[in-house]
Amino acid sequence: MTRLPLDLVTDILLRQPVKSLLRFKCVCKIWCSTIDGPDFVKLHLEGSLKNGSNLSLMFKSLHLYSIGFESLNTGVELDHHPLWDGFGCETEVVGSCNGLVLLENSPGKLALYNYSTRKYHQLPVEPIRMFERESDDPPYICYGFGYDSVNDDYKVVRMVLGSFWDSGEGLSSPDAEVGVYSLKSDSWRRVFSLLSLYRPFYHKYFHRWCGVLAGGALHWVSPRDPVNDRPNFIIGFDLRSEEFYRVSQPDYETYNFDLDLSVLGGCLSALCNYNSQCVDVWVMKEYGVKESWTKLFKVEQPRLQFLKALAYSEKGDQVLFLKNEEKLVWYDLQEKRTRRVRTACVLGSFSAQLCLGSLVPLSRSKGAEKLLDKKEKRNKNNRDDFLSEGFKLVL
């Protein structure tokens, strides 16, 4: 075969899925160094984000499963993830960003995992200072995970909410402990309290404990105050400045709904559930601009207790939803009807997280990330499989 210029080979490789690229690294040292290079990793990630390729869904049912977004029929059980304990029932997928997922199976046991490369990094244990005495009430803990593009750093946010009392204006909490983990420094630090933001509001817990990532910030919903009939409000956490703020919302016709958050088409999405009969789907098309909130459509079905938007279809004419944490459905934007997706590997109630396959490393320091080598193919077998398919190029 005619020798190809390296820039042309690189352009071809950038169009390949992650699974193929991991095998192509076995072809020669030049390909391996190219694919591992930070510029290649960044360009491949940007291409996947732009084209909506290399997508999959990660499910938490009795175990963790990964299912390709193209088929959504059969999946692979992630039976040897970093927090695998032989049973796997307790591990939760807290968040996903740029191919990395945050796993948690106890308040102090967290791990970042690139499920494509099978590399992981276990976070250092950070004790909860507010609840060091045995007499303290059990804490309510919320997590979030995202990317700080300004500082090129992946961060984990942990909010620990304290005990509650009746202040005469609804239930109030004395304080909250907020910690931020930086992957770049591999350390935790504490940021200022949430007290000033939520003192007047009822929040026995933050609805949907996993933070929603959009616009370079994480978001949670505070529940409605049943005492004073105050509406839901959205709390944002800027990953760059590490500050909390209130997020502006649309001008709803009424506040008689339960609010959930999702991300749809890269935009923050608000889902307003009216008495389990219908859900209005809003998106903030320009993050931080109140006037950019747009009502996209309404989903009307009986017993619609919970709806989470996951992604648009390839043609953009359907939206994939998780309904009532028990089924996946495609919603046709033209016909305004839903069609159930049959997933053979998931039974009972489950959660779902949209994930992106990538080559993003967990550290620039050698030895700081580990390779999960169980059930891993040897390099020799990868090379033999690759050459047997006739993809050999001469450099």
From TrEMBL:
CDD domains in the record: F-box_AtFBW1-like
Source organism, top-level taxon: Eukaryota
Residues covered by the F-box domain: 1-43
Signal peptide: none
NCBIfam families on file: F_box_assoc_1
Protein name: Putative F-box and associated interaction domains-containing protein
Organism: Tripterygium wilfordii (Thunder God vine)
